[in-house]
Specification:
mainly alpha
Length: 980
């Protein structure tokens, strides 16, 4: 059929103004006639109008004649249409009359028809209800079959549909009451089964595989656990496994799309062993949360999961402990290989790794819950991963309480987590309850699901309660047994308070990881627990208490500084000289604290404060001991060597001499390089003989110039060699102790880094400079005390030389002139040689040889100077006196040579002085001319005076002549040779 042409738009009509239309023209004519003043104008206007009228009439006739055919056709068509309209009206009127008659007839049979229609509809619904009842009766067996196959989504869908049907359309059917009760019971059983399955995938599957895969290094034993029922069968074909994994991934994708999905196409798992473990867990967790939503159990399940966290984590602790115990003790490692980790560190490491695995599974569960809550628009409050870690910390705290042997008085009240405060008070679910005679670790009295648990779930909880960890048991509110006996504890090691040193750093790594999860900047509860235990229990009752007892013992025992360590202890310390027991004891406390700081770096400041207090007390004890040696009785009694040392000029002079500076420099090299420095007191630069003589001469001149004229009495010396030995032991101990403190302080300058587990979150601990400065100052004070002791010994030897050698002639000759044997030295010289030998024996066994050398080196120069100066107090001298003085010098030379292992030529010089008295004055002057001056001008003058008196020369002019010749020979130049 050809398409008709499109309609043509008619032309627009011409618009006429008011003047051209008939009405407008008429109004115009009326206005014109009204405005005309004469009849002639009106007549003209009339003629004009008539003329225009004739033209219009003529135009109209022409148009009518032109369109006459069209008008005729239009009139004919109009007549036909009018005829058809009239006929249609008559037909419609007839139909209307017929319908009205039909309506009247149907009205007569309406009641009969309505009854028949109602019966038909009722019959239809009855048949449908019978079909629904028949299907409803099959639901229990269907649910059982699906549950057996672990197709929980199918079972949940069938069960919820049946319950909705029984509570909806079939609510009034009383015969279905038993069936409805059975379906409700099966709903609770399915809910309990889903909770059990969820707990298995949350806490058992992944952790069990991880635990079974753990083997201690070097251990050939395997775990005693049976093969896990969740392990995959390795004999399955790879093609079937790949196909199952592909199906599961497609199902997970459909579940994650949101909205409604086809249950029949989603749950397609027939055998969970054919799917990878991680994919299997992800799939089943998604299925279980979907089932909770269909069962309207999302809030209850969230509450139950939170309540079960602590008990399930406690079971992980139990399984891990049993696994490590089953492996047995670690085998000894060969030399050169690192020792195996402590069993408790193994336990904590395994627990934390398993807790992290469980946390990852909880994160997956939380994502599914969030998705379910949004998709079903539920008002349930989801928990957070921080809540899980709060419960994990509680379990770790309970583990630490057992192994650290902590008496926790607040054990019944679980420490609440300050890690992160939620809008919902989770403590309602996690707080402990007090029981009269039994400590319980886990409770379920706040759980909503335990009331509705079926027999299967109750049996599962009883099985869990039988697996106790240490002294803790799992509390089951449905268990009515009155047996409250504690089971035997199973521990990987013996509980000990000091285990905190072994586990502190690993635990702190775990703590920082947990705190990084919350990112609140607050300490987690495990951190607070550790801090409280370390500070209030371990340090306050253990280490710090030991330090306090040491301080009290040192302060109360006055003779604590006298006892020395035994040979075995000296050998153990790698020393060659004995030390004070108190020094070794305090040093061991410092060494223990140093090790403790490495183990507990966060408490370094507290520990160092205790060490500083101990050192200050010990410093006072040592200073009191020193004062007891050098000031044994009263303030009035003065020890001459100590008095000399208190003179700043003498002390400064002694410390500027090369022998002292070289001794201290060699000691500093030993401190800096240790064993690499070789001999600890090796001289840095070999002094020439001239330098040694000049140094010794300077010291002898300084000491003799400071000696009082009255000599030194017996009460002004330390005559007891035992006291000098105690002073030597104190010097050796103080010097060694100062070195140990300095080494300890220098080690503290290095940042203390956690070397157990590398963690970027843990910043190294830096000890404050103020504390290190205090330790350094204390080390300097002990070193200064050691220097004082050594200088006192150095001076005491010289003071005793003054005491025995510098005496008045009358004192020397009273007991010697009447002796029969005049070939022996003076009695005081013999006493001095005996004292020097005893000192050498005492010092050799207590001091380093280099220090003994420092004490006795240069003593011969002082003795020679004292012997020569003794001639000043002689009024006259004979041959016997000269021989005795020569024997005195020889006896001292033999004694000092045996001590210093060198020939003391200075005493040869003293003997030569007295042998010079045998010569005549002229011979002495001739010798000066030939060999040069061997003595000072004053010594020559003194010798000349004694010779003149001995020879009876009384002429003062002769004596003046000798003096003038002597002055001319010596002149202003310094004397040649060695002078004393």
């Amino acid at each position: 059929m050809a398409s008709s042409p499109p309609p043509i738009k008619p032309k627009r009509r011409e618009k006429y103004s008011k003047e051209t239309t008939g009405c407008g023209l008429l109004v115009s004519v009326i206005k014109t006639l009204d405005a005309s003043e004469t009849n002639e104008q009106r007549q003209k206007e009339k003629l004009k109008i008539e003329k225009e009228f004739k033209k219009s009439d003529q135009l109209l006739n022409e148009l009518v004649s032109k369109h006459d055919g069209d008008l005729t056709k239009v009139m004919q068509l109009f007549g036909k249409v009018s005829t058809h309209v009239t006929m249609s009206r008559e037909k419609i009127h007839t139909v209307k009359e017929n319908l009205h008659a039909c309506k009247q007839l149907l009205r007569c049979r309406r009641e009969e028809l309505k009854k028949l229609w109602t019966d038909a509809v009722q019959q239809k619904y009855v048949l449908e209800m019978f079909d629904q009842i028949n299907e409803l009766r099959k639901v229990p067996s269907i649910v059982t079959a699906y549950t057996t196959k672990r197709q929980y989504l199918h079972a949940t869908k069938a069960l919820t549909s049946a319950i909705e049907l029984g509570e909806g359309a079939l609510r009034e059917v009383e015969g279905l009451n038993d069936l409805r009760h059975d379906l409700e019971m099966r709903k609770n059983q399915l809910y309990a089964k889903l909770l059990e399955e969820l707990a298995k995938y949350l806490y058992h599957v992944n952790t069990q595989e991880f635990l079974l895969g753990f083997q201690r290094q070097g251990s050939g034993r395997s775990s005693t656990y049976a093969a896990s029922p969740f392990q995959r069968n390795p004999l399955r074909k790879s093609a079937e496994r790949a196909e199952s994994n592909s199906k599961v991934r497609r199902a997970l994708f459909e579940m994650q799309q949101g909205g409604a999905f086809d249950v029949d196409k989603t749950e397609i798992l027939e055998d969970g062993e054919m799917v990878d473990a991680e994919l299997n867990s992800t799939y089943y967790i998604g299925i279980i949360t979907e089932c909770f939503a269909l069962l309207n159990k999302v809030p209850q399940s969230l509450e139950t999961i939170q309540v079960q966290m602590q008990s399930e984590l406690g079971l992980i602790v139990t399984r891990t402990t049993q696994h490590i115990v089953a492996l047995g003790p670690p085998l000894p490692t060969p030399e050169g290989q690192p020792a195996p980790p402590h069993p408790l560190i193994e336990l904590l490491d395994l627990l934390f790794k398993q807790f992290k695995i469980v946390a990852e599974t909880h994160s997956l569960l939380l994502k599914n819950y969030t998705h379910i809550i949004q998709r079903y628009k539920l008002s349930a409050k989801n928990y957070d991963i921080v809540d899980y870690w709060a419960q994990a910390q509680i379990v770790l705290q309970n583990v630490l309480v057992d192994y650290l042997n902590i008496d926790n008085p607040a054990n019944d009240e679980q420490p609440r987590s300050t890690f992160l405060e939620q809008s919902t008070n989770l403590n309602t679910y996690f707080s402990r309850r007090k029981l009269p005679h039994k400590k319980t670790l886990f409770k379920f009295d706040k759980s909503s699901h335990t009331v509705s648990e079926g027999n299967e779930a109750k049996e599962h909880r009883r099985n869990l309660s039988d697996m106790s960890y240490d002294e803790a048991t799992v509390f089951d509110p449905t268990h009515t047994s009155t047996d409250k006996k504690k089971r035997e504890r199973v521990l990987v090691c013996k509980p000990d308070l000091s285990l905190i040193r072994t586990i502190y750093l690993p635990i702190m790594n775990y703590v920082f990881e947990i705190e990084n999860i919350g990112k609140t900047g607050q300490r987690c509860s495990l951190h607070v627990f550790l801090a409280q235990h370390v500070k209030e229990t371990f340090l306050a009752r253990g280490h710090n208490r030991s330090l306090q007892m040491t301080i009290e013992s040192l302060s109360k025992t006055q003779d604590a500084w006298k006892a020395i360590v035994g040979p075995d202890e000296v050998k153990r310390l790698g020393l060659n000289r004995p030390l004070l027991q108190s020094t070794v004891l305090v040093e061991s406390r410092i060494r223990e604290t140093s090790n403790l700081i490495q183990d507990l770096p966060n408490y370094s400041e507290d520990l160092l404060k205790m060490i500083c207090a101990l050192l200050k007390t010990y410093r006072e004890t040592c200073q009191a001991a020193y004062r007891g040696i050098v000031q044994p009785e009263t303030e009035d009694k003065r020890i001459y060597s100590v008095a000399w040392l208190k003179d700043d000029d003498i002390s400064r002079f002694l410390k500027t001499l090369p022998n002292w500076t070289d001794l201290k420099m060699s000691h500093m090299r030993r401190q800096q390089f240790g064993k690499l420095a070789g001999n600890a007191y090796e001289m840095s630069e070999e002094e020439s003989m001239v330098q040694v003589q000049q140094r010794n001469i300077r010291e002898a001149e300084m000491l003799t110039s400071n000696l009082c004229e009255g000599g030194i009495s017996q009460f002004e010396i330390l005559s007891d060699v035992g006291v000098l030995k105690e002073l030597a032991i104190m010097q050796q101990s103080m010097e060694w102790f100062s070195n140990r403190i300095s080494e300890f302080a220098s080690n503290l300058r290095k940042p203390i880094v956690n070397g157990v587990v590398s963690n970027e979150l843990i910043a190294p601990v830096v000890v404050q400079d103020g504390t290190i400065k205090v330790l350094t100052n204390l080390a300097l004070e002990f070193d200064e005390l050691a220097n004082t002791c050594l200088l006192v010994l150095h001076l005491e030897v010289r003071v005793q030389c003054f005491h025995y050698l510098r005496s008045y002639p009358s004192d020397r000759t009273k007991g010697d002139l009447h002796k029969g044997d005049n070939l022996e030295p003076d009695s005081k010289v013999l006493k001095l040689t005996k004292v020097l030998s005893d000192m050498d024996e005492a010092f050799s066994s207590t001091l380093h040889p280099r220090k003994v050398k420092y004490i006795f080196e240069g003593l011969a120069h002082l003795a020679a100077r004292i012997l020569i100066m003794a001639s000043n107090s002689m009024e006259s001298i004979d041959q016997v006196s000269v021989q005795r003085m020569c024997r005195n010098a020889q006896a001292l030379q033999q004694t000092l040579s045996s001590i210093t292992a060198t020939r003391e030529v200075a005493l040869d010089h003293a003997r030569n002085f007295y042998e010079m008295l045998y010569m005549k004055p002229e011979e002495i002057l001739s010798q000066i001319v030939e060999k040069g001056a061997q003595f000072t001008e004053m010594q020559y003058l003194n010798a000349l005076q004694l010779i003149c008196k001995n020879r009876g020369v009384t002429d003062q002019n002769m004596l003046a002549t000798y003096q003038q010749k002597l002055s001319d020979l010596l002149g202003p130049k310094p004397p040649l040779g060695v002078t004393v």
